[in-house]
Amino acid sequence: MVLNKLSDLRGIVAGSTKKKLILAAAQDQHSLGAVLKAWKENIVEPILVGDTESIQSICSSSNYDITGLRIIHEPDLVKAVEMSVRMVSSKQADVLMKGMVGTSILLKSVLNKDWGLRTGNLLSHFALFEVDTYHKVIAVTDVAMNISPNLKDKISIVNNSVSCLLRLGYKIPKVAVLGAVEMVNENMEATLDAALLSKMNQRDQIKNCIIDGPLAFDNAVSLESARHKGIKSEVAGDTDLLLMPDIEVGNVLYKSLVFFAKAKVASIILGASAPIVLTSRSDSEQAKFDSIMLAAASCK
Amino acid sequence: MIRNLDQLVDTVISNGKTYRIAVSWAQDQNTVGAIYRAVNEGFVSAIMIGNPTEIIRTCSNENIDSGKFEIVEAPDASTASSMAVGMVRKGEADIVMKGLVGTDVFLKAVMDKDKGIMKQGAVLSYVGAIQVTDYDKLLFITDPAVIPYPDLAQKTAMLEYAISMARRLGINAPKIALIAASEKSGKHFSSSGDYNMLREKAANGDFGNCIIDGPLDLFLACDRESVEIKGIKTPVNGDADILLFPSLEACNPFYKALMLFAGGEIGGLIMGTEKPVIVMSRSESPKSKFYCIAMACTML
Q: Which of A57, A118, A261, B108 has the lowest CB atom count within 10 Å?
């Protein structure tokens, strides 16, 4: 199966036991709205870790009813994050979400050798986009975490993403490795990496997916464009996952899809022992809610 | 000030002039269609260079009256390209356009030291004016097609070309955004140094009347709301006319995402030449091909 809409995630969530989500440093207006919406709609069972007084005052001024919700009082930001991460690593919760705390503090805890969420895999950002102009949801990685991944990093990023897609119910996701051109060009490293990834996939060194690349954006998402160019590919025009060459390209593409193509987006961090929701202030409440749904749906 | 590509066409038509286009290896259905439309609108006369039988057959397949074109015989694509470029050199044509010939073969004729039409010592690059729903004016982008990793001299030329195109369309003090993944300058971002230099050049008046800022991410460049939310002071203020990208890798998927997912159209040209040069990819929409022709006429 494939996801046609982000709302299809709801069905996956409903078919499984309800997941517990910890909001670390929960005194955050922006995340609380989305978390409480997800709670009311039975997507997750939230646990709020943070300054109880601030949490309550935000909730009462926004008319959020939090009767019956578990709140753990920890006013110190760093301690709140540590407590949250420890609860996830000891399996008391399934999903970690960032509240009113800097990304670097959260990631430092996540990567703690003794009680963090390390798995030995690279952490990577994974985003699902829904645009009216594509026939299904398209996953894009990595637009936010790894600045300029080398071949080894790209293999980890693909593996993280493919595992996630399999958990969402995909059978054998089609992966397009993005290039500015579809020919391998010895001066453009991204095209060399793309060719290597494709070959490694053929040789079963990267499993459970079909990789093709380099593919320019139009060939990855439009069969007609690929035909014009005479490209024979199982992936062209039907891409499930688009691998970015680096963050510069990924960031521009992500923002053009959101701003110009009015895409709906859900995103999580992969590679830790649990999915992490790490949305930014500029994300809409819908994007935050959809990201929570994606995290819950992608739990093992 | 011209705000969209139909307005550009109207302006060219209202000039009342007829521009002569020499098309290299013209037996190409896509090219023939766009040229025919421009001829019918009355602003273009076309010299189709190639295999006359093939040209006439292509026209009749497309229900186009080949009698509207001057047809000139050439034995092969490379010769056709040299002939088309030669006609522009001799003043027998105003614009040269690529037909069914490969871009590299065509550009070789354009760039030929003795018989080509490059400006002395000029950088060859590409500027496109993109029209997209939800942006209230044209966005000039560079470079989605030619220079993979522009250095400072190339970025300077790209910027000058984009400014010249914008000014030709009545945007006298264009707002220029130097695009990156984030507004924070830093060592991890390879174009930081070049962007500083470009801002300095602009401050020295090298680019004439313009407003420039960067690095900026796409949101800060094009979305006033994001500028407000982030609380960043930037003179471009979410209202950019020109986007300079750090690489072809970033610009190419941006342009293609806008075309395919956001209903975009483009009117773009090769820059750095004595006379306008049109190179269009086969997968361009028929409308965009027509707009490219109108853009070439505008630059004369």
A: A57
